[in-house]
Amino acid sequence: MNQKQLPIFTIILIVSNILYFFYLTAIGVLNDNTRLIDYGVMFWPLVVEQHQYYRLFTCMFIHFNINHLLNNMVMLGVLGQTLEIEKGRIGFIFTYIISGLGGSFASFYMNYSLQSNVISGGASGAIFGLMGALLAYVLRSRRPMGRLSKRGMIFCVGFSLYIGFTSDHVDNIAHLGGLCIGFLLGLLLSCFPNKQKCEVNQ
After folding, report:
1. Which own/partner pairs from 109-117 qualify as long-range (CB within 8 Å, at least 24 positions apart)?
2. Which domains does the chain have, with CATH numbers?
3. Please, what sign has the CA dihedral across residues 173, 108, 102, 38?
4. Angle 122-153-57 (CA atoms, 0-180°, nearest 5)?
5. Residue 107 annotated among the catalytic residues of the structure
6. Considering the entire predicted model, what is its pTM?
7. By C-alpha distance, which of 70, 71, 67, 89 is closest to 80?
């Protein structure tokens, strides 16, 4: 029988996002953009003028309302556990963080170029990176990744992009940046074999 690996990094990320959301809710800053800037959102003037590059990372853990949080955490749970179990914890967390940073940088660069003084945050850039990586895996291997098939992943990516582009106040540039980085990382990591599962013969 197979002993299934616990997707511990996926669980840690979900718990961290939820805890930080409720912390920001408890101190009453989620509806105050001026105060929220002090808690790690992406705001390009502070990155450029005060070199607060950490915002590229911290903005990945800030969600602006409960729907934003729940939508991202459901997707993180589904995609994250598949990638972590199939490719291992290091491959998963590497893909998540680098894709998230890529999405954050894409958002930063676009807002800087347009001189748009908006704040942004959320895990969706990293989550789109997981989508991109899983899509690369199923396209290259021509087999399902866990329960996710090639057709299912193509639909997931297409539908998620459609929802983003037809909704207001969505950072689609971060989504596209994370997706592209994740896809490239997926192509790279697909060169390595899947993480072997422990088997016990009886």
Report:
1. 110/173, 111/42, 111/44, 112/44, 112/48, 117/43, 117/44, 117/45
2. 2-193 (1.20.1540.10)
3. negative
4. 20
5. no
6. 0.88
7. 89
Tens digit of each residue's pLDDT (9 = 90 or more) over 59-103: 999 999 999 999 999 999 999 999 999 889 999 999 999 999 999
Q: Is the pLDDT of residue 19 over 60?
A: yes
* pLDDT tens string 1-10: 334 678 999 9
* Res 201 pLDDT > 60: no
Catalytic residue, candidates 104, 120, 124, 190:
124
- Identify the band that residue 143 occupies on the pLDDT scale cut at 50, 70 and 90: confident
Choosing from 99, 120, 160, 175, which is the catalytic residue?
Answer: 175
Give the span between the Cα atoms of 130 and 92, in whole angstroms.
8
Name the 3-class secondary structure at 3. strand
Calculate ∠ Cα 165-169-172, nearest 5°.
40
Is residue 55 within 8 Å of 47, Cβ to Cβ? yes
- Catalytic residue status for 124: yes
